[in-house]
Fold each of these.
Amino acid sequence: MIRGFYAAGSGLNAQQMAIDTAANNMANVSTNGYKKQDISFSDLLYSNIDGTAAQNAMVGNGAKVSRTTTIQTQCGTEFTGNPLDFALTSDGFFGVLTQDGKVKYTRDGSFGVSCEDTGNYLVTSSGDYVLSSGGNKISSDSEDLKNQIGVFNFANPYGLTNKGDNLYEITATSGDAIAINGQLQSGCLESSNVDLATEMSNLIEIQRAYQFNAKLVQTADELANITNNLR
C-alpha cells in the first residue's frame, strides 16, 4: 500500500507538469515565433517482489518526467506591413542582448527602436538589443536594416534551454552560436506552431490520467485505513 501511494503520487506530479506544459502552449498560441513544448515520461526504478516463486517478478514504482523538448518546426507568417517586423523563413534565431547583459536567442522578430543619447538602436518588444552577425548593436538608421540583422544557428538547436519570455540560451548540448545566412521576410511575423485543437485534446487526456492517479491515492488510503483498523 505504501508503494501504491508512491507510485500514484509520482504519477500525479508527472501529470501536473504535463498540464502546466499544455496550458503554457495554449497561452502562447498567438505569441510570435513561439515553439511548443512537448513533455516525455519514463518509468521509475522497478523493485523485486519478495516472497514469490516467479523469477524476475518485479513491480513498478511510478513514472517521472524525463525531458521537455522544444518542437522547432516552422510555421506560417502573418503580414503586418510594419517595416520593423521580420519573420525568419529558414532555420536559425535572432540574437539579442538582454537587460541582464546576457546574449539570448529568439524567433520573435517584432522589433522597435530605442532612441538613446548614443544613437538609435533596433530592439525587441521587451527592449533587448537586436544583434548583428558580429554580435554588435544595430543602428536603426541603417539604410539596409534587413541585412544588418544577425541570424544564428546551433549544431543541436533542440539542446537550447527555454528561459521564458520566448527566449533561449545556449548549453553544452546545443553548442555555440554560429552566424548563418538566414532568410528574412520584412513586414511579416512568424506565427506560433501551437495547434489549439491538438493541445485541447492532449489536455483532456492528461486530466483523465491525473484523475486516475488521484483515485489510486484515494484507494490506497482507504485500504491502509481498513488494514489499520483490523481487530
Note: Residues 77-190 form one domain.
Amino acid sequence: MSEATDTAGATGIATSVRLTYDEGEYPEDVRGWVHEGVTDETFLASFRRRHDTMAEGEIFDEFVSCGCGSPRDVTLRVVAVDGGPRVDEGTELVVEPTG
C-alpha cells in the first residue's frame, strides 16, 4: 500500500471532510428528511466517533431517522479531505446531495 493511501499509522487531523449522497435514491417526499438527518449535528458527532479516519473515495453505509421511527439507509461518499486522514471532534463534516 502506498504511503498516500495508508491511513493505519496516520497522525494528521482533517480540518474538513466533504461527503455526498445521491438524493435521487429517495422519493421526493422524504428527501428533506434525509437531508436533515445527514446534516444533523447529533448524526455528524456520532459519525465522527465511529469513523476515525477518512479518505477520498471511501464509502460509508449509514442510516438516518426520517421521522416517526422511519430510518432510511444512506450511502455517504467521501469526495474531499482537507488536512490529514484522521477525524476528530474538531473536523468539520460537510454533507451535500448529488443527482
Note: The chain has two helices and four strands.
Amino acid sequence: MKCPYCGHLDNKVIDSRLNKDKTITRRRRACDQCDQRFTTYERIEVMLPMLVKKDGRREPWDRGKIVTGLEKACEKRPVSMADIDRFVDAIEGRLQDTGGKEVPTTRVGEWVMEALPELDEVAYVRFASVYRQFKDVNEFMNELKGFLAEKDK
C-alpha cells in the first residue's frame, strides 16, 4: 500500500476491524518511512453483471454513479452516508442475485424506485423527477398521486 504522504510502499498494519455487516475491513496503517498514519478500507470485489443502457450500450457497474445520484436526491435530508451505503449494498446484492451476465439499467432504476421511499420520501420524489424524465407538471403530479395511493394502502 502506497503511503499517501510520502509515496513509500512499505508500511505496517496497526489495527484491523470489520464493519457491522462484516463486509468491509478497515485497516489503520503506519508508514515505515515517514511514520504518518492512514486508513484503508478493503471490500471484496465481486463480479457484477454488465449493465445494458437504454440505447444498447453496455458498461460495468459503477457504484459511484448510484451513490452520487442518491447523494443529490438526499441533499439536505436526514439521510446519512451510512444509510446510502447500505442502500447501495442492497442494490448490489440484488445485482449479484440475478446470476446473469447482463442486467438492463431500467431494472436497476426500478429497484431504486421501489426501495427509495423507505429511505426517504422526499429523496424518492427528487430521484423520480430525474429518473422518469417528466415532460410536464401533469406527469409529475400523476407520479405523486400514484406514490401517495401506494403509501395509503
Note: Helices lie at 63-73, 81-98, 105-119, 121-131, 137-152.
Amino acid sequence: MSFPAMKSHLKKGRKGHSGGREIKALKPQITSVVDIMTCLLIYLLQSFSTDEQVVTPSKNLELPISTAQKPPHMTVVLTVTDEYIMAENERVTTVDKVLATDDMTIPELDSWLSDRRDRTLHIAKYSSSTKFTGDITIQADKKIRFRLLKKIMYTCGQEGYNNFSLAVQKKDT
C-alpha cells in the first residue's frame, strides 16, 4: 500500500505533520531481530541433533545394501578404495601392495592400529570416559576382493580390534 501524500512531503520538503523537520527512516528494533535469530538457532540445533551417528562414505565407494537396523556408533574407520587402504582418512598402504604378498598381516596397517590402540590405552589411564573397546568400522566397495577383506580383518584382529562392523547402505523399504 502506498501513501502518495507522504512521498510528496519527503521529496519536496514541505512542512507537514513533522513541523518542518526531516522525516527519518524507521529503524527496526534490534531486540526483535535477536529474538527471531535465537529461535531459528535453537530450532536448527534441535533438528540436527540425532542419536545416530552419520557415516559419510568416500565418494568413489559403492557400499553394499543391507536391511540391518543397528545404528552406527563412533569407532575407528578403515576405508578401502580401489587403490588405497586408509585409516581415519590417512593413507596407510596400497591395495596392489597388499594383494602382491601372501602374508596375512598387513604391516603398515598393523603398525597404525598398534599406535592407535596404545594412544587410546594411554588416554584411558587418565580418563574414565575413554576405554579401548576394539571396535572398528570397515568401509569398502561392495566389489572388494574377499582375500583383501580377509587380510584386513586378520590384521585388525591381531591388534585387538575384534568387533568388526561393515558399513552398508540401508535398503529402501
Note: DSSP finds five helices and seven strands in the chain.
